Each structure stands twice: as structure tokens, then as C-alpha cells.
Sequence to fold (118 residues):
Amino acid sequence: MPSGVWHPEEYAKLPQYDGETGDQPPHLFVCHQQDGRLCAGWCGTHDMSQNLALRFAEHFGHLTAEEVEEVLDYSTAVPLWSSGAEAAQHGLAEVDTPSPAAQKKIDRLSRRLPQGRS
Fold:
């Protein structure tokens, strides 16, 4: 993902998941592009076996045991950052002046928003 696509508040959430399990946010990090799916980068970057949000989601029935297993087994050939902090640093680097590639992505994503939202 090019730098600067998301709002700074979204990037600020990422390092919080780098901490010890008990210090992590209890909320799943969902994909900004596909409604209802977990963020693949978030799943691939973090040790999901130590993820508080994933544990809570299963415990409270928001995810089935099979869905949790899918997350735990997830892998990708796409290079990912080694931490949420690194991903956030990259994302924030050009947030005030997105590159042409980032602006193209922003424009494409903006067209998916319902009328009246931005």
C-alpha cells in the first residue's frame, strides 16, 4: 500500500497491536477495502496466536473456531512490515503529500464510499 492513503488516526492504531497481549486493543482491525474482512496486513504482520482481539472475537462468538484457525494459518508472499510501528511510520511518511500512486488509490477507494461520505 502506498504511503499516505489512510487518515493518520488509522495509522496510529497499528503500533498498539505490537505490545504484549494484555496491552493490546481488544478490537479486530478490519480491512478498509473489503467490508467485514480482517486486514490481511494486520494478520500477516502480527503474531495472531498472541493477539487479544482475536481471542476476544472467538470468546464472544464474533468469529468461529474455524475462522480463527484461518487467521492463525494465514500467510502471504507479499512482503509485509515487521511491526505495526513500521507500517504506521511508512503510512504517515507521505500522509500530507500523497504520491501519484497513493492519490490514485485514494481516488479509487473514494468512489466506493456511499454518497455523502468521505
